[in-house]
UniProtKB/TrEMBL annotation:
Keywords annotated in UniProt: Glycosidase, Hydrolase
Top-level taxonomic group: Bacteria
The protein's name in its UniProt record: Pyrimidine-specific ribonucleoside hydrolase
GO function term, MF aspect, one: purine nucleosidase activity
GO CC entries: cytosol
Biological-process GO terms, alphabetical: purine nucleoside catabolic process
Residue ranges occupied by any Inosine/uridine-preferring nucleoside hydrolase domain in the UniProt entry: 4-299
Organism: Actinomycetospora succinea
Pfam families tied to this protein: IU_nuc_hydro
Length: 312
């Protein structure tokens, strides 16, 4: 089975993603690392412990990652979307905490990469600070990452935290530029362009809630999360779960290779991801960007429900 590491800022949709990763038969979840983002690091770390505990995965080492971005601190979190507890105001529904963290995220990730006998998939579903730091401090381990799957960015539909920027990239644009533009690890980006199409409705959430205790807890986050992620329709995006589905089942999402740029200025476009479609000189670094065109959106929703349901 493919070794998998998840770097995460739980986070409601992160909770869906971690549940999917913990149960996916195609992968072996070797580590979870918590990073600041939706809420502060202490809370994302506690939530990661709670999720691993609820999923019966106390065997998975938890690493504590970055508390803030590389360069310019951002005070804005996303408690308005994920609730002050980061889990839709129902954190207690996810049960008691799992084991204490095993150490610092970079050390936990480095241990997994060093010990792996096959390429590791690294799924990054929060700000990219930990990934940027890992690649900067341990370039020797980059070749052990077979694939990086990132939830983030928006290349054509505008942002969710500013006119152009998506929250994960906006939270640390310098880290995002390092990872998406400067590094060379094979990368798939799952942007808002797709996650705002693969939304789930009340019927889907009801089916999930009826599937068992994990599905019930996940669905219970809806009221707070839906208000925060208001898309003007009675549906919610579970961004990170879509990215993890691609991580555990490569090729589920249709992708196009694009040369990307990330705005790291301090102006109104800060954190915006630009796709350069000019087809410049061959050999330029491209990222496989997931797009709705060619993705079986209904099939993705069904797969998410099947994988997240306790007994489905
Ligand atoms: O913009 C959506 C992303 O930002 C998701 O990863 C969500 O959890 C938040 O981190
Ligand atoms: Ca997230």
């Amino acid at each position: 089975m493919t070794p998998l590491i998840v770097d995460t800022d739980p986070g409601v949709d992160d909770a869906y993603a971690i549940a999917l990763a913990a149960r996916a038969s195609e992968v072996e979840l070797r580590a979870v690392t918590a990073v600041f983002g939706n809420v502060d690091l202490a809370t994302t770390t506690t939530n990661a412990r709670r999720l691993l505990g609820m999923l019966g995965r106390g065997d998975v080492p938890l690493g504590v990652g970055a508390e803030r971005p590389l360069i310019h601190p951002t005070t804005q979190r996303a408690a308005d979307v994920h609730g002050d507890d980061g889990l839709g105001g129902v954190a207690e529904r996810f049960g008691p905490l799992g084991p204490e963290p095993a150490g610092r995220a970079l050390d936990v990730i480095a241990d997994v990469l060093s010990a792996a006998t096959e390429p590791v998939v690294l799924a990054a579903i929060g700000p990219l600070t930990d990934v940027a730091l890992l690649l900067a401090t341990r370039p020797d381990l980059a070749e052990r990452i077979g694939r990086l799957v990132v939830m983030g960015g928006s290349i054509g539909i505008g942002g969710n935290v500013s006119a152009g920027a998506e929250f994960n990239v906006w939270s640390d644009p310098e880290a995002a530029r390092r990872v998406l533009v400067e590094e060379r690890v094979p990368t798939t980006l799952v942007p808002l362009d797709l996650t705002h199409v693969v939304t789930v409705d009340r019927a889907w959430l009801s089916a999930l809630a009826a599937s068992g205790p994990v599905g019930e807890a996940l669905a219970a986050t809806r009221d707070v999360y839906a208000r925060g992620e208001a898309l003007g329709v009675d549906r919610v995006p579970i961004h990170d779960a879509v990215a993890l589905l691609e991580a555990v089942a490569p090729g589920t999402l249709a992708t196009v290779p694009l040369e990307l740029e990330v705005d790291t200025s301090l102006g109104p476009a800060r954190g915006t991801v630009l796709a350069d479609r000019r087809g410049r000189a061959p050999g330029g670094r491209t990222v496989d960007v997931a797009v709705p065109d060619g993705t079986d959106v209904d099939g993705v929703r069904a797969a998410l429900l099947r994988r997240l349901g306790d007994h489905m």
